[in-house]
Amino acid sequence: MTTTESRTERGTHREQRERVAALHAELTRNGLVTWTSGNVSERVPGEDLFVIKGSGVLYDELTWEGITVCDLDGTAVDGVKRPSSDTDAHAYVYRHMPEVNGQVHTHSPYATAWAARAEPIPCVLTAMGDEFGGPIPVGPFALIGDDSIGRGIVATLGDSRSPAVLMQNHGVFTIGRSARAAVKAAVMTEDVARTVHLARQLGEPVPIAQADIDSLYARYQNAYGQ
Ligand SMILES: O=C(CO)[C@@H](O)[C@H](O)COP(=O)(O)O
């Protein structure tokens, strides 16, 4: 449960908490969050723990002490901040998707507009084939505060190549092999949500053939970059 406020600060996992605190700046820098909305978490390597933003902490004031260490049941084990409202959701994903080491949640405006309409973003850009391997799917409506969102994420992404899901009426949740990879997926989600929205204003976007999506995805995931 995430309701227990940890009053202890033992300073464990400080390097990781500093790095994850700093990563939150990418959310503001890319215009993905407003005020205190959104959060980043990362699994602690080799331990049944993860670190996550404290609930309601302002981004400008976020330091390593604003990041709380939790176990995989979502219970705070180190830190002075009550962990994010989405802690039980992140914990559920870490328990059920062992390959996932990082998660991000945003209310980035274009992607969340798609979520408000519960409409998947169709794969009509090569950048989508690259990063998402297909459309960005929509997950079910879920209330905030328990593991319902996590259940929706796992159910939706379990049979998708996409590292992003648009939770209906809510916003973007992304997963990755690291918190940084999940942040990248959140940035890319907003970018393609905006471009496909703009394309829609001009006419009907042209779908990419499945074989070409497969080819794009394979190249980008296996051969792109240094
Ligand atoms: O939408 C939600 C809850 O899912 C969050 O984005 C909140 O807006 C921020 O919650 P904290 O992580 O600060 O508790």
From TrEMBL:
GO cellular component: cytosol
Family label: Belongs to the aldolase class II family. AraD/FucA subfamily.
Catalytic activity: L-ribulose 5-phosphate = D-xylulose 5-phosphate
Keyword field contains Mitochondrion: no
EC number, as in UniProt: 5.1.3.4
Residue span(s) of domain Class II aldolase/adducin N-terminal: 18-197
Protein name: L-ribulose-5-phosphate 4-epimerase
Superkingdom of the source species: Bacteria
Gene Ontology MF, one: metal ion binding
Gene Ontology biological process terms, A to Z: pentose catabolic process
Pfam families, per the entry: Aldolase_II
Cell inner membrane in keyword set: no
SMART domains (UniProt xref): Aldolase_II
Cofactor(s) the protein requires to work: Zn(2+)
Organism lineage string: Bacteria, Bacillati, Actinomycetota, Actinomycetes, Geodermatophilales
Record keywords: Metal-binding, Zinc
